Amino acid sequence: MSFGARYTEAVAARGRLCAGIDPHAALLTEWGLPVSVDGLRAFAQACVAGVAPIAAVVKPQVAFFEQFGSAGFAVLEETIAGCRDVGALVLADAKRGDIGSTMAAYTTAWLDDASPLCSDAVTVSPYLGFGSLSPAVTAAQATDRGVFALARTSNPDGGALQTAAVADHGTVAQTIVDAGAAVNAQSPGTVGVVVGATREHGLDLSGLGGPILSPGLGAQGATPADLARIFDGADVSWLLPAASRSILRAGPDVAALRAAVEATRDEIEAAL
Ligand SMILES: O=c1ccn([C@@H]2O[C@H](COP(=O)(O)O)[C@@H](O)[C@H]2O)c(=O)[nH]1
């Protein structure tokens, strides 16, 4: 089954929400956990129990595991496997991007069945040129996985580059959306794009044919009503709003985490 079909099935069954697993040091402390690998593991296990069984997509933020070195990566491996075991699609938020030959190694790490980090999809940075992502795109097509390319990010600094004009093609961000659309015309849903919920994006997303990951809800200030306004006219069946801290602050109680996922998802559904 193609990634687009797997994604559509997951969202139909569990609702439109990507729940982030972002073990910030401040959250570990709020949860009464030590800022250590043991704390990281306890945090991640609570997310596997409280978030992954009900969210359509979970997005571990790789940076928060990576900061603990190899022991952190071991926890990430357990977390990815645990989330997939309970039926969530795992989108590794690694934001990888490099020249093609190096991109091939990143692709092996995140999208190859033999890798302990293998996920259903991975975030990628297209700012070395969309073509540099070819190894990941080709692997995703061959294995029914996905890549999510940064287009118009949620942070205030992204605009200077991403909204720069490109002759006859709108903006830099629009070229990324259009390059993703060209891939999706061959293999629906393979390429998603990242478009933040924090501001107007100015993009034509109508021809993408793939998921639109929209971070920025909650901790970064965006609301479900903002989503409805910003994506008015887009095909919202592909829209995947994402929230991390605003859900995770409900922990460490597993039932409270579940309730926070459900409440966020229900607010999104009511607004869209
Ligand atoms: O444009 C982007 C791309 C990625 N992110 C990531 O999403 C989460 C957001 O966390 P919150 O706690 O909900 O703010 C985080 O992992 C970012 O690296 C993004 O925010 N914006």
From TrEMBL:
Q: Which UniProt keywords apply?
A: Decarboxylase, Lyase, Pyrimidine biosynthesis
* Functional pathway: Pyrimidine metabolism; UMP biosynthesis via de novo pathway; UMP from orotate: step 2/2
Read off the lineage from the record. Answer: Bacteria, Bacillati, Actinomycetota, Actinomycetes, Mycobacteriales
Q: What is its EC number?
A: 4.1.1.23
Entry annotated with the keyword Lyase: yes
Q: Does the keyword Lyase feature in the UniProt annotation?
A: yes
Q: Where is the Orotidine 5'-phosphate decarboxylase domain?
A: 16-260
Q: Which PANTHER family match?
A: OROTIDINE 5'-PHOSPHATE DECARBOXYLASE
Q: Which residues form a coiled coil?
A: none
One MF term from GO for this chain?
A: orotidine-5'-phosphate decarboxylase activity
Catalytic reactions of this protein: orotidine 5'-phosphate + H(+) = UMP + CO2
**Gene3D superfamilies reported for this sequence:** Aldolase class I
UniProt superkingdom:
Bacteria
Q: Which family does it belong to?
A: Belongs to the OMP decarboxylase family. Type 2 subfamily.
Give GO terms for biological process.
'de novo' pyrimidine nucleobase biosynthetic process; 'de novo' UMP biosynthetic process
* Segments traversing the membrane: none
Put simply, this protein is called: Orotidine-5'-phosphate decarboxylase
InterPro entries reported for this sequence: Aldolase_TIM (IPR013785), OMPdecase_AS (IPR018089), OMPdecase_type-2 (IPR011995), OMPdeCOase_dom (IPR001754), RibuloseP-bd_barrel (IPR011060)
Q: Name one Pfam family in it.
A: OMPdecase
